[in-house]
Amino acid sequence: MKVYGGKALQTINASTFAYCSRLKSFSIASPVLKKIGPNTFYKDKKLKTIYIQKTTRLTKAGVKKSLKGSSVKTVKVKKSKVKKYKKYFKKKNSGRKVKVKK
């Protein structure tokens, strides 16, 4: 199963995709996304990479505990945001150690 977020999506609520055992791909095309709630991908065992390459408004507080309990290993972002998002997606903040790359 693949999920693509729309261009006007601003918030993904807590635990929205928790326990989605068939979720393999998650991509968000919204440049206005501000928050990915806590435990959004909790226990999603097949999801390894999330794509948030067009998003420019996320903040450190906006991803707090968002990856806690997930299997996500990689977060792909816009090239100009890699350095900033590496700080956001540290285990201490996002709840899981992941690689952030373009």
Short structural summary:
The protein is of the alpha/beta class.
User: Distance between termini?
Assistant: 23 Å
How much helix is in the residues?
10-25%
Global structural class = alpha/beta
The low-pLDDT segments are none
**Could you give the count of β-strands?**
7
Strand share of the residues?
15-25%
Rounded mean pLDDT score: 94
Number of helices: 2
What order do the SSEs take from the amino end to the carboxyl end, as H and E?
EEEEEEHHE
Rounded radius of gyration (Å): 12 Å
3D shape: globular
Query: What is the count of structural domains?
Result: 1
What topology does this entry show?
Blueprint: E1 2-5, E2 11-12, E3 25-28, E4 35-36, E5 49-51, E6 74-76, H1 82-88, H2 91-94, E7 99-101
Parallel strand pairs: 1-3, 2-4, 3-5, 5-6, 6-7
What does the model show?
This protein has 102 residues and is an alpha/beta fold. It has helices spanning 82-88, 91-94, and strands at residues 2-5, 11-12, 25-28, 35-36, 49-51, 74-76, 99-101. 11% of the residues lie in helices and 21% in strands. The strands form 2 sheets. A 5-stranded parallel β-sheet has the order 1-3-5-6-7. The protein has a two-stranded parallel ribbon with strand order 2-4.
